[in-house]
Amino acid sequence: MLSQLLSRENGVSLLARRKSEAFLFESTSQFQARCAPERNWLVHVGVLAGFRQCQKNQNLCGVCHSFSYELDMKLQIDNFDGRGPTDYRSAIDASRAPKVVRRLNKPDELQLSLIADRPDFIVPGNGARITLGRSNGEDVFTGYLTQAPAFEYLGWGERGPVYRYNLVAQGDEVLLDRKQIPNSPPFVDRSAGDALRQLTEDLLPGIFDTTAVQDVDTIAHYAPSPQKKWSEHAAEIALRARAVYRALNGALSFAPVGASVYALNETDASFSPESLTLQPADGLVNDLTVFGVIEPQAYVKDYFVGDNLSLKFYLSQIPFTRRNRTLVDEEYAGTSLDPTRWGVDDPLGVVSVNGGKLQVAGGTGIDGQTTVAFAEKIELGGALVLQHGNVTFTGQSDGILGGFYPAIVSLAGCLAGFRILPNAGQPEIQAVVNGTLSGTAMLTSPGHIYALTTRIYSAEVFRRQQTFHSASHPAGNGYGGALASADVRIVLEVHDVDPTNPATAVAPSTVLYDSLIAGAPGFCSYVLVNAANLNCSIAFTRILQAVDAEVRSALPNGSYRTRLVGSLSDGAECKILSSPALEFFPKYAPASGEFIEVRYRGFGRAVARVNNRQSIFQQMHGTDDGVRAAVRDVHAPSPRTAADCENAALALMDDAAPILWSGEYATWSDFLPGNASDVFPGDRLDVNVPSRSSPFEAIVSEVQIVLQDLADDHSMYKIMFEDNRADALAFAFQQSSAAPPVNLTVMAVAEVGSKFLPALKSAEVTAVTSTTITIDAGTAPPSGGGIEVRWSDAGWAPGNDRNLVGRFSTQNFTVPRLDRTQSYYLRQYDNSAAPKYSRYTTALHVDYPL
């Protein structure tokens, strides 16, 4: 119908020429709705090539009269040449109406063409700022030219050649996209909005107004890559929280999708049925297999015995974390701390950076007031090594170095750290655990260097589940997000180096504390310096994600102690090779008869299969068994465990439906749904068109605005939307050739979260003879159930005896030993009709001489 309403003379729109004299209506129904009902709509039609207009000078209806005085649009361009923003509206090529394209979680785009209309016309250059908005202050587009204008020759005019200048501009986030993402630590256990604010402030501090950025939901872990632009990170953060971001006029907003709601109802007088296009699609899935990333699986314990000669011992599996990875390497270069890594509270100005060291000279005398804290939380999962640095004391000191705090930064709230205490001579160092001093204090010596290191070992690598969203489980109410409980081993060690004695550089570290903290918190603030009154310098700080292998040993009839893994120069005793193998340094060779235990996690692909049995039953008819199966390899949010895969399946099946709608609606700006003044991607559109059997909730995915009449602010909107239940609002998928395991457990929707028993994390070998091995399962078997032991990690079922060692109803039991090297695989099971088993196996591997 639009083609019937437009007429052109010499390539110039009559609408642009007549401006307030005429206004196009998308449909007869819209025109009749807005004009006086007592007037026949034909009275309003002028004689100019099909334009519908009110009579200009007499008997105007009130609505049509208002159209003649609509707010006008303004186009201002600042070329940053000292002239400031300049009005370019008169230079707009009337034959090519400006077009604004808005896409969900992508930068806005403006396309327009200019023709020089005055002698002092300046061709906008790359980087010029463009503002297109209404005279009442509402902005339709703000952004920057991202490339030089394209010149299009039109002919020769009075002043010489005439060109059309075709411009393309992108939204305000282009300022952020031009900056390189800093090599900062991953965001850990932060809200999505907080992560977006931080990312924005790291690039352009104080430039964007972020007051409209909502927290939305918690993200367990997100690592911003310097290889991606800010807008790409913003889109992925928004996807993980089922949210939408927007950058307009120097302000950044972030909110759940659907926060603004408009109705598109066919009973509305301004509704245009011919402008609505709807497309149904089959979205029903009731049997879904979800793949995630590589996850930690089996709980492995390898047992060896020393002979005073052997240095290398081969592991039975490859650990989940196969190599050390440096998360932070701070050398304190420059004259200040990097704000993307450190936050400083320093009321007296006693903290400084100079000479390649962090210098601390005093404090307020009050615990928790003078601090240097890491910007992100530390997840107490897997294996972590925190080298707080080589510390040199320059005077009496009082405070905590390398402290972990679950909540308030204070001595009483310190989970673990190095307490520095004043002494009559030099300061002394002592472990503080759960706010209490522990173990023996080490007296420092003048001029010595003290390398302080904290080692963390947890059988649970990830302490918080990922969160997955759907239309009925939006931000704040998603699936997953639960904390995983875990016992965490904390080792606090000090390496004392005397610069005048080279032998001390490879001397063993002194362990101040080595014990298991039961039910440790999942996340802590890491405060490098908590200075009541510290006088010291710190040469470096490193945070390493270590190979997740905990090595402990015990002499016959002795107690187990942690063997420090790392480099010899750091005071360590052994290292983990990629073979995989454990190798001791020669001076720390295990003694004859010394028992060695290595604990770590195996790995495999995270996968889960969930079905909706009620839906399957409803779809059954004839030879159709009702199954509607699908396989999804989820890229984001990444399912890091099988439990995450289950929760992702729940969210995806939540939104599965026989009909998922998508469509588009074209209308003039005066007739936007719900009397909206503007429409943006992420807004919710409640579509109610009973004549097409399509009442549903939709989310706007794209808006195209063609500004046909700048003088009177009349624009043509094309609004594209998709069903609120569309996967793309909360998930990104990738292609994969992975095949589900043959023995993958299939569970019903109602069984998610209760299908598996806990793994036997604490199971261990307690005695070894030449023919038998005694095992303590670590927990009593379920009533009516037991502990199933197999020679290989397969065949877990009550009717399969192929590789069965035995089933035991007691916590302690003895199994046969057939060789020098022997592996046993354990899972517990209950007395259900179809017994439930542990999800993950516990693998006990023994390599003892016969």
Average predicted local confidence, pLDDT: 89
The Rg value, from CA coordinates, equals: 34 Å
User: What is the number of E strands?
Assistant: 55
Number of domains: 6
Content of β-strand? 35-45%
What is the name of the CATH architecture of the largest domain? Sandwich
Helix content: under 10%
Q: Per CATH, what is the topology of the largest domain?
A: Jelly Rolls
The termini sit apart by 91 Å
**How would you characterize the largest beta sheet?**
15 strands, antiparallel
Unreliable segments (pLDDT under 50, ≥5 consecutive)?
A: 1-71
Shape: flat
- The CATH class of the largest domain: Mainly Beta
Number of helices: 9
Describe this protein's structure.
8% of the residues lie in helices and 43% in strands. 43% of the residues are buried. The strands form 9 sheets. It has a 15-stranded antiparallel β-sheet that branches. The radius of gyration is 34 Å and the shape is flat. The chain contains 9 helices and 55 strands. The protein starts with a helix and ends with a strand. The protein folds into 6 domains: 2-67, no CATH class; 74-171; 176-256, Baseplate protein-like domains (Phage tail protein beta-alpha-beta fold), CATH 3.55.50; 284-323 and 551-656 and 725-753, no CATH class; 326-546, Jelly Rolls (Sandwich), CATH 2.60.120.200; 764-847, Immunoglobulin-like, CATH 2.60.40. Helix 6 (192-203) runs antiparallel to helix 7. It is mainly beta.
